[in-house]
Write a structure and sequence with these properties.
With 247 residues, the chain is mainly alpha-helical. The chain has one domain (9-195, 214-246). Helices cover 70% and strands 9% of the residues. The protein has 7 helices and 7 strands, in the order βααββααββααββα. The strands form 3 sheets. It has a 3-stranded antiparallel beta sheet. The model has no long low-confidence stretch (mean pLDDT 86).
Length: 247
């Protein structure tokens, strides 16, 4: 059978970009504290910025971007693999933030931290693709896959540099837009690398135990992510204010 030529919902594509920018901006606000944080507070700043970047900017953008794809069948996702992709994104980004932010590996900290974070982003993307349960086989263009991984690593290195070198609010907002473009660039390059060929006479996957239907998920993912990012920003404000009062 002929391969599917996917189209995209422009509203959801725009929403995925907004998610990437908002998550990136939140992460920049949080990560700036990592280099100067006391040991007892370091875990909070690494984890919170990792959640904002890995979960808010990257994973949520990826998921909404997946939902933006129009295909002639219902997509479902394996819940366990989808959750695992979320955890991988956060863990790898946290590790990259800690290495680059604290110079744990000397002069190579930024590059190695960015490489780790970027590989985590790529792993999250392709695991998330593997979690997709559809009546079609999925093959990949090896060259485009490699390009998407390079984009992920370069974007991660740039993101970490921006996170630890910019101070002004307007600078961070502009940087968040750049990061959003980079995150979306990696995702949609990875999507373009995939070719879906329908399986003839394949049965529907709806209702399969352990799978998650996409109906209404874009709005739910967006709402949960926005609430989470606002909570992280508020906790950051409270923690910073309390630290300044003690000082």
């Amino acid at each position: 059978m002929e391969a599917i030529i996917a189209s995209y919902n422009p509203m959801l594509v725009a929403l995925s970009f907004i998610m990437a920018v908002f998550g990136s901006f939140t992460a920049l606000q949080l990560a700036i504290r990592i280099p100067v944080a006391e040991k007892q507070a370091l875990g909070f700043w690494v984890l919170s910025s990792g959640i904002a970047l890995g979960g808010g900017a990257i994973w949520s953008m990826h998921f909404v971007g997946m939902l933006a794809m129009n295909v002639p069948f219902e997509m479902q996702f394996d819940i366990a693999l989808t959750f695992l992709s979320f955890i991988i994104a956060i863990l790898f980004v946290c590790l990259g933030l800690a290495i680059a932010g604290r110079d744990l590996l000397g002069e190579t900290s930024l590059v190695l931290g960015g490489a780790i974070a970027g590989l985590g982003v790529a792993s999250m993307h392709y695991l998330g693709m593997y979690a997709m349960k559809i009546p079609a086989t999925v093959s990949y263009d090896t060259t485009l896959v490699i390009v998407s991984i390079i984009i992920a690593i370069v974007a991660a290195i740039a993101s970490l540099w921006l996170a630890f070198n910019l101070r002004g609010m307007l600078q961070r907002f502009g940087s968040a837009i750049i990061m959003g473009v980079a995150v979306c660039g990696m995702h949609y390059t990875g999507m373009y690398a995939a070719t879906m060929t329908p399986i003839e006479a394949a049965g529907a996957t709806a209702g399969t135990s352990g799978n998650l239907s996409i109906s209404g998920l874009a709005g739910t993912v967006t709402l949960v992510t926005v609430v989470l990012l606002f909570i992280l920003l508020y906790l950051s404000y409270v923690k910073t204010k309390k630290a300044s009062q003690i000082a």
